[in-house]
Amino acid sequence: xxxxxxxxxxxxxxxxxxxxxxxxxxxxxxxxxxxxxxxxxxxxxxxxxxxxxxxxxxxxxxxxxxxxxxxxxxxxxxxxxxxxxx
Length: 86
Description:
The chain is mostly helical. The chain has helices at 3-50, 56-68, 73-76.
């Protein structure tokens, strides 16, 4: 193989090596992000499952507790979400 072709082949090999190293870094960041997302979802589901179930009976208890204090439930709720800017 002539000397010129060897140099060209070596440059291509180095270029491919650099591209693969950059791709590995991107894939590593993607894998870490997916792992964090998976752990967050797992923790969220475990917390949700560990909370007591609230259904219509729970809502009725909250409503009656608010009325015992002399205020209807609607007065305890904000009329619009805070921080919306309007």
